[in-house]
UniProtKB/TrEMBL annotation:
It comes from Eisenbergiella porci. This is Multifunctional fusion protein. Forms a complex with SecD. Part of the essential Sec protein translocation apparatus which comprises SecA, SecYEG and auxiliary proteins SecDF. Other proteins may also be involved. Forms a complex with SecF. Part of the essential Sec protein translocation apparatus which comprises SecA, SecYEG and auxiliary proteins SecDF. Other proteins may also be involved. It is a multi-pass membrane protein. It is found in: Cell membrane. Residues 227-396, 527-709 form the Protein export membrane protein SecD/SecF C-terminal domain.
Length: 725
């Protein structure tokens, strides 16, 4: 790149950044398309529609039928938003909350009447109910021509098996059609080819796999065991309130500004390049969140924070490499080129490993987990693009316009290796003590309160209190004047608030309240705010994170961990790298869990996002160290393994500290400026960042060394000889 091209590149970048920045702030057209304000937001940030259904019939529904109905409705409403919530209210009611929607009637019309799936013959006789289908999955099978075609595979219950065998026996001779009808409309009309007696059927004729998935989903979620009718519907406001959102955005902006100043102060010209690339990252994220219509919630913001940390991390790795090359006597131009080349493997491995986890969580998870995975995956892709493409482009342009003095880029200083491995017994002991202490705290909490952790209503349910005030209070007024009073009565620091738009009604969700607490709350509301106690109603509500969702989250995390282990094994050709990385992840989760138990931080929907963020952050830091160990093994050939590991950790130490510091700054500002619910999310996340850095630097390398020497059966001073790549 010559000087003229460098000037053109910088001007073009500034123009593009300014243009995209304008769109992300002000949008395009009357609807402000593409702007930050038009990003779909969850219930906690923007509110939405709340619909309450009641079970039809005089008999009380069983717990199993209620759980089955809630789970299937959860899957159905996720078509509107991954952040939609479905939970039980009282003994026979189900509440649905869908964020980002303001027209309850439109939702009711689109959602239809739950539980109206049936299979009918050509005469209109119902031959199979939706509840007779145990499962429906999209798949592929070979057709008569030997080609793969999309199909829907049905598995019937024992009762359904008998019904379907009789129906297909009658229809098979004339290849009659059995219609699948949902909400009064035919969604599929397959012809019966033969009698089916084994309770397993295949629907062919799907145009695409997506069409098969849609039909399978309709069949799965359409067969509700309970008949429901609408009881009420409301449009509810944001749970956090506009002031909380403004302070969170301001905190994010301040944190990012501090990070940019830090990068410029430490890395000079490369720091300026990374700061400009980080601005482009933020703009692109806003535009892509709009483009992909991703619903943004507090857990989603966690995914973005993590991806910002990874974007800074990639730049730190690159800049450290450039300084190392300059220190060997190479020119700045050559050092920039080689620095990006040498940093590539660590950046790709770290980001791809986290991307694998995000993909598994997005595919298998639901609700909060899926929303987190979507924003994290998008953030990872954008962060890699800005670090590897935008930063490189700007840095080369700076060099081309005349910023060629190596003093503007810095020179790595020779560092004496720190003997981390000599302290491995101390590090292992500290970790074991912290983890054991966590279990002790959980045991003490279990004996004292009946709960090992301070579970919020998202996990164990609680009480929903509907209060009609005499005046139209804003969420900010309610948070300032009413919520502290409720927290004092209930001892619950995680009170959730929703305001029914167009009315003076406010819904307070707390832990489960007994009769005495309810009476005290009612009396206090009446005395302090003049509320008519007859206009106060309370209902017991179930957890918004159902047992099925929790199981899905656990299974998704386990599968994601296994996939990460396999990828690391494949990339590093040594399963001990993967085993050490996974052990570090488990270590970080258990230490943060110990913090939750000791400090009694509320365990709610953000708990899952917090843990997933820590896992993603920790694995990325570990990969960087392992990448340097792999590189040094290949470069040095025969070498003392003990010294090689210490050298590798020392070489990446500044990267570990700087990346952790920048990410910590982002979260710390969020903690200082945020409301209580945001602070309860940010506090353990800060602990996780510190813990993840500690485990990556002090635990993973030492653990790999122990596994390598013990399994190989060699002494501590094992020499290793590997062919160069």
């Amino acid at each position: 790149m010559n000087k003229k091209k460098g000037i053109f590149t910088l001007i073009a970048f500034i123009v593009i950044l300014a243009g995209l920045g304008y769109v992300s702030i002000f949008g395009v057209g009357e609807n402000k398309s593409g702007s930050a304000s038009s990003v779909k937001q969850g219930l906690d940030l923007a509110g939405g529609v709340s619909i309450t259904y009641q079970v039809v019939g005089d008999e009380a529904p069983s717990a199993a039928d209620m759980n089955d109905t809630i789970y299937k409705l959860q899957k159905r409403v996720e078509n509107y938003s991954t952040e939609a919530q479905v939970y039980q209210e009282g003994s026979d009611r189900i509440n649905i909350e869908i964020p980002g929607v303001s027209d309850a009637n439109a939702v009711l019309e689109e959602l239809g009447k739950p539980g109206s799936l049936s299979f009918q013959d050509s005469q209109g006789n119902v031959v199979l109910e939706g509840t007779d289908v145990a499962d429906a999955q999209a798949g592929y099978q070979k057709n008569s021509l030997g080609n793969q075609e999309a199909v829907v595979q049905l598995t019937l219950t024992e009762e359904g098996k008998v019904k379907f065998a009789e129906a297909t026996k009658k229809a098979a001779p004339t290849r009659d059609i059995i219609y699948i009808i949902y909400d009064g409309s035919v969604v599929s009309a397959p012809a019966v080819q033969s009698e089916i007696t084994d309770g397993s059927a295949v629907i062919t004729g799907m145009g695409t796999f997506e069409e098969a998935e849609t039909l399978a989903s309709t069949i799965r979620i359409g067969g509700l065991k309970l008949e429901l009718e609408e009881l009420r519907s409301n449009v509810v406001g944001a749970q956090l309130g506009s002031a909380a959102i403004r302070t969170s955005l301001m905190a994010g902006a301040i944190g990012m500004a501090i990070v940019m100043v830090f990068m410029i102060a430490v890395y000079w010209i490369p720091g300026v390049a990374s700061s400009l690339a980080l601005c482009m990252y933020v703009v692109l994220m806003i535009l892509l969140l709009n483009g992909f219509e991703i619903t943004l919630t507090l857990p989603g913001i966690a995914g973005i924070i993590l991806s910002i940390g990874m974007a800074v991390d990639a730049n730190v790795i690159i800049f450290a490499r450039i300084r190392e090359e300059i220190a060997t006597g190479k020119t700045v131009k050559s050092s920039i080129k080689i620095g990006f080349q040498k940093a590539l493997s660590a950046i790709l491995d770290g980001n791809i490993t986290t991307l694998i986890a995000a993909a598994v969580l997005g595919f298998m998870g639901s609700g909060t987990v899926k929303g987190f995975a979507q924003t994290l995956a998008l953030g990872i892709v954008v962060s890699m693009f800005t670090a590897l493409v935008i930063t490189r482009l700007i840095l080369n342009a700076f060099y081309a316009v005349g910023m060629q003095n190596e003093k503007l880029y810095g020179r790595a200083k020779e560092k004496k290796p720190v003997n981390f491995l000599s302290k491995k017994a101390v590090f292992f002991t500290i970790s074991i003590v912290l983890i054991v202490a966590g279990f002790v705290f959980m045991g003490v909490n279990k004996g004292r309160t009946g709960q090992s952790l301070n579970y919020s209503l998202e996990f164990i349910g609680g009480t929903s209190t509907n209060v009609t005030f005499n005046e139209n209070m804003s969420i900010e007024d309610i948070d300032a004047n009413v919520v502290p009073m409720i927290e004092k009565i209930t001892g619950d620091g995680n009170v959730q608030t929703q305001k029914v738009q167009g009315t003076n009604e406010v819904i307070f969700k707390t832990r489960t309240l007994d009769v005495t607490e309810r009476e005290e709350l009612n009396n206090t509301l009446a005395d302090s705010f003049g509320v008519d106690q007859e206009k106060i109603t309370a209902e017991t509500i179930s957890s918004t994170i159902s047992g099925e969702m929790r199981r899905e989250a656990v299974v998704a995390v386990v599968i994601a961990t296994v996939c990460m282990l396999i990828y690391i094994w494949f990339r590093f050709k040594d399963i001990r790298f993967g085993a050490s990385a996974v052990a570090a992840l488990i270590h970080d989760v258990l230490v943060v869990l110990a913090f939750y138990a000791a400090v009694r931080v509320s365990v709610g929907s953000t708990f899952i996002a917090c843990m997933l963020t820590i896992v993603g952050y920790s694995i990325n830091a570990t990969i960087v160290i392992f990448d340097r160990i792999r590189e040094n093994i290949n470069l040095e050939g025969k070498s003392e393994l003990n010294g090689l590991v210490n050298k590798s950790i020392t070489q990446t130490l500044s990267r570990s500290i700087f990346t952790s510091l920048t990410t910590f700054i982002m979260v710390a500002v969020l903690y200082i400026m945020g409301v209580s619910s945001i602070r309860e999310f940010a506090l353990p996340l800060m602990v996780g960042i510190v813990c993840g850095t500690y485990s990556s630097v002090c635990i993973t390398g030492a653990l790999w060394f122990v596994l390598r020497t013990r399994i190989a059966g060699k002494s501590k001073n094992t020499a290793v000889k590997v062919k160069s790549r």
